[in-house]
Amino acid sequence: MLYLAQSMTIGFMIAAPVGPIGLLCIQRTLAGGWKLGFITGLGAASADLIYGILGILGFATVISLLTTSTLWLSIAGGIVLIYLGFSAAKSNVSYSTDSKKSHSPLKAYMSTFFLTLSNPMTIFAFIAVFSAIAPGGGDGTEIGLLRLIIICLGVFLGSIAWWIALTSASYYLATKIDDSKIKAISFLAGISIALFGCYTIANAIIKTL
Questions:
Q1: Which of 7, 51, 57, 134 is the least crowded, having the fewest Cβ atoms under 10 Å away?
Q2: Are residues 147 and 1 in contact, defined by beta-carbon separation less than 8 angstroms?
Q3: Where are the alpha helices (H) located in 69-120, listed in sequence order?
Q4: Does the predicted model carry a pTM greater than 0.70?
């Protein structure tokens, strides 16, 4: 139970900072309802699970490959953020049944899954924290199968807990404000997401100079 609690805390804390994925979750909840917002978060949580598994197993080859591909992953992720941001900013959002039906759950899931995977720095956060709780220095050499499953499950559940909390808060907000405010918030969220994309690309290029 201790490993489950620790790994759930790790998953929650790594997911919690409200960056572009969080803004997407908020915007999609406002535009498409609780389900769409949660599915958006679920995509990020699934990617966190994959990185959590890689981190605890200490896959040096995979980590090295991800590190050397950071520039192109960041550029690709930045381009997707810019596209999603401007799409959200210019969309005619209203909290209505027709608006909710117009959004694709699969597209919402895959977009945040890819965006989270395009940030390989996440894996180093998992490695750093796992090294403190996992026997064998966090390289997975002394972790039994059951314990490994518990830790990975905990990371996933902790991440899911954050997305449920954020989606629920956004959904509550959507029920308390009118469509004009929802459109304004959605527009600001979209512009912020696009700016995150520009920053991601610029930062990746600057680091290579």
A1: 57
A2: no
A3: 70-90, 97-101, 105-117
A4: yes
